[in-house]
Design brief:
Largest sheet: none
CATH architecture: Orthogonal Bundle
Number of domains: 1
CATH superfamily: ABC transporter involved in vitamin B12 uptake, BtuC
Strand content: under 5%
Number of helices: 13
Number of strands: 0
CATH class: Mainly Alpha
Order of helices and strands: HHHHHHHHHHHHH
Structural class: mainly alpha
CATH topology: ABC transporter involved in vitamin B12 uptake, BtuC
Amino acid sequence: MLDDFFIRGLLAGLGLAVVAGPLGSFVVWRRMAYFGDATAHAAILGVAISLAFGVSIYLGTLATAMAMAVTVSALVSRGQAMDTMLGVLAHSALAVGLVGVSFVPSARTDLTSFLFGDILTVGRPDLALIWGGAALVLALLVWRWQRLVTATLNEELAMAVGIDPRIERLVLSISLAVVVALSIRVVGSLLISAMLIVPAAAARGLSRTPEAMAAAAALIAAGAVAAGLWFSLRLDTPAGPSIVVAAAIFFVLSQVFRRG
């Protein structure tokens, strides 16, 4: 069954959807859209470094995305203006990454796949990494769930009950970096933020509790993957953007049927 490129792509997308839903919920709750952009855009620099030194794309992307996530988290903790700082870092990271890739001849022809993903070329080793990484991040979120939710809702209340908001912010930063690294082959660095935000935003109006929203976001993300791949196969459109378009359609529908 796994010899079928479509099935492998579907399984890879579902692996990403399972973790993008809950993590994306925190991104929406904390208004961290630019945070996701900064981390995702840094992945292009990780691609350039990986190709230049002949190491795994996943490893280079993970290291660079994690460095960006930790840097941004530290700056925010020091009181830097979040929106301005994230905007500067997001666009600067993308520009530096693109310039870096231009110095690696072997990367020039593959740049589009790193920007927008190439889910239909995912192989068995990629599947193992995606599902393994997704399981680790999901387990981390489940373990820290109550602490993360409390720190997200009210940092003063979290500190009053012995929860350090900085640690929870760091947990989210590291989780986001891992998901960015996993998604580089699925939807690419430019579209991963959409896969985190759009399904969670769609689930927000359909849910009453944080847990329900996280589960609904994962289901919507999974539905977007399946629908996007089907449209890509039938209409010969790019797979990664097709998945995001499907997620956007789900968002529009959620606004029509949202709970009062």
